[in-house]
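[Target chain]
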Amino acid sequence: MREPWIVGVSGASGTPYAKAVLTALLDAGESVDLVISRAARLTLLDETGATVRDAHWKDDVGAWLGRDLGDLAYWPAGDLAAGPSSGSYPARGMVVVPASTAACAGIAVGLSKDLLQRAAEVSLKERRRTVVVPRETPVTRSHLEHLIGLHDAGAVVLPASPGFYGSGAGATARQLVDFVAGKVLDALGVPHTLFRRWTGELGERNA
């Protein structure tokens, strides 16, 4: 039985993080269900020039990722009758990357405004692995309270905060994005080689 990871892309800046996570999951041979919010389409267009149309999603998502889609399925964000809206739909868990403050708030309070929020709520209530990647700074008290709510509900709150020990101060944007994507896959328990792991040896990066 197919048991995908659900990846939700919300409207926060940071679509390269979503691309890196999707690519890594597909490279690992994982099944993926993709949900892109309406706001995320605008961000994607602004940051990459890519468009995603429901009726042409295979061509559009393939062009955005620049690769074969493998076992990737797509659900329109407005389809609240879609498979991931139900707890009986088989799924391994969900990642929201990047996660806007609006998406975090909606998931934390169970708003189910669209399929992304509903699928994340389902993932939490079914006690499946759920990773939320907020990309906002600075944050207000209400933002922090919603993140605490997500944590208490069982989610892994994984801010888009790249580390530099794998590539140094001269790290490229790609290396920093891959670091965050690698941490997401670590939280899911999916093997990857997206970054050099810390081994306790200073200067190993230059060895």
User: Anything to note?
Assistant: The two ends are 45 Å apart (CA to CA).
